[in-house]
Amino acid sequence: MKSNLLLFHFLVALLCAKAEHGGAGSSIIFTTLGRLDYAFDIFSLPINEEHHPPTLFDEIQITDGESVNFNGHFPSPSSTASLLSLLPNQTLVQTIFGVDPPPLQVVYVTERDGVSNLYYDVVISDDPNSENARRRRSALEVFDRVQVPILGKKLVSDKISMKDKPNLIGNHVIYVSTHENTGEPRTSWAAVYSTELKSGVTRRLTPYGVADFSPAVSPSGIRTAVASYGAKGWDGEVEELSTDIYIFLTRDGTQRVKIVEHGGWPSWVDESTLYFHRRGEDQWWSIYRAILPSNGKISVDSVVIERVTPPGLHAFTPATSPGNKNFIAVATRRPTSSFRHIELYDLKKNEFKELTRLVSPQSHHLNPFISPDSTRVGYHKCRGDGNGRKNSKLFLENVHSPVSDISLFRIDGSFPSVSPKNDVIAFVEFPGVYAVNLDGSNRRKVYNGNAFSTVWDPVRNGVIYTGAGPEFAPVSAEVDIISINIENPDHVIVKKLTTNGLNNAFPSPSPDGKRIVFRSGKTGYKNLYIMDAEDGEKGGLQRLTEGPWSDTMCSWSPDGELIAFASDRHNPGGGSFELYLIHPNGTGLRKLIKSGSGGRVNHPEFSPDGKSIVFTTDYAGISAEPISNTHHYQPYGEIFTVKLDGSDLRRLTHNSYEDGTPFWVHKSLRPVNVEWPIDRPRCQFEDLHWLNDMPGPSFGVGLMDKAECETLFNITHLLHVVGKLKKNKIDNLEDNECLNETGSFDAHWPKVLLKLPSMEFETNRERRTKKRQVEEDETLCIKELALIPC
Predict the structure, then answer these.
(1) Which of 342, 349, 366, 742 has the most CB atoms in a 10 Å sphere around its CB?
(2) Domains, the chain
(3) Which residues partner with 32 through β-bridges?
(4) Sorting pLDDT into bands at 50, 70 and 90, what band is 6?
């Protein structure tokens, strides 16, 4: 009897504990910008001394097409024995390493099973030059693969975090993880750790209070280099991060010293030389070389810095191999291309050699790495639907949750909300509002115009509220609250509820379905109002907040007692938003979450029991160098929850993407992936929007296409006419020196540099910057036009 009573009390305590986190069994659905389109896999191309251009048949897909796989690393021979000891079948190991050619080995980051981990793959493939390989290029078709996770359950499932940038040296793996809370708002959790492969013993190498990114271990393993903004912390910069390069001892993180101011993504070629990227004063991302002194103190002052790649194109994320003084691999963005590609840069001839553009010109290729023997270059890209295999497109991706009673799902859409019956999800694309069954079936477009945010009426079946109009628009933009009644799928009824069209958005109904709280720019500032749910403003309007600031993104609590919203009232117009609570009668205003200096806390949503709030925030700063990823408007934003008294702040997501617009579902969804039953194209994502900003003409740098050469001719001719050319001008440029249909020409930088002083021109470009939620026109003034002739 006593044991039964104890069991009863235990179960009651367990249920109460679960209720503390939003109710016994619930789910949160959120958006990650672009993530479900990535479908990254690790690929590789051979590097040959003859510099023959690669072909489609040379490329090998190394990873297996499950989830996303990226940021690979070819392990050195010194690590092979330790890695092989992880494999469960040692007999198989002896068999596969007896083949000719030897198998490919790669360590990489993967997000399979809804959690970030590091994996080791050994892949046996045909000789890439064999006839058989020409018929089947993909590693999905290799006849053998051995695969094993490097980090155990304790470091993966028990400590949910983002893993990144693995390096193998001896019997240790060096990598980034975000599993330790800094305890300070707007501070990155990214730190470098060392884990012994066999025992799993882990040591933190980054000092507490500091964030480190992009580790690179020297060939001997003695030192590790990282990108870090050190003790100064993150200042909100979202492109370069204002990082410097630090080095320290790999064994324990001691003897840490800054060697380069302004740089990122270090890569060692020997014990005293490393390469890194930075955006130069001319605004081009370029590769630089840092040479450490052979004797004496190592410091910023004693390290020699040399620029390696020329202006005229963006070059970044350099890769080296031990002792290789002949070439490096880089990712590039050229003015003539919308795609990121991998190229080799010849350090002797100072010229580029194209690789991936010749193989798949219409795909982005990211973050190269070179094999220890310098014979292969690896990278990741979207795998697409090659080899006749249709890869499933996920509608909901289950993400491993650090809270046992909350399941997490990433949705292929924005601003999701679930109907009161928990059977239909509404979400937006730009443009359009959609509804789809919870199992991914019966996807239909219920509104054609542009809209943002969705929420269901809690009482009237099939009624969705949204803000119809442009997103991220000024206060005077025409945006209205509308209701969309989809109860009769053959007769969808759309009704406008607001009357003035002055940026009315983010509706949230009261739990009895009678009223709606929303934000409006009626007075020239975005404040909160309450109106009738069925008749809109015509049925009555109550002003809830008032002031020269922005109150927005409101959510009504399940018990009707509170309204949560984001506001910049603490610093109007400063771009920083914090979380507030207020009663529907306008009393009891209080701040719930402070986001830190310049920080953001947005999109609050109450838990089903009304005791907690989920929201998106930059509280955890940035987790990786932004340039190592593809398109995002802001390289931060994680999903957090907090109780209404401000306690028990919990981070739910860990990645380097942009998570946002969470919705807390009233029931627990089965923690499995949900696929679209429709065929949807993948790989439809763009590169970083700020890489599209080319500082100026880049004629003659590296590889030029015919159009670019023709433009060079036209400008040269014009300058001849107006008498602006100096002597030694561009006068020997022939048609055959431009890029033809099959070849390329290499400029020798900085062999000849013609500068035309006092020439000024302006170009206007429209740049939508969502991080500031404003649209602005920028004028780029180029004071000196530099032309580098062929």
Answers:
(1) 342
(2) 392-677 (2.120.10.30)
(3) 659
(4) very low
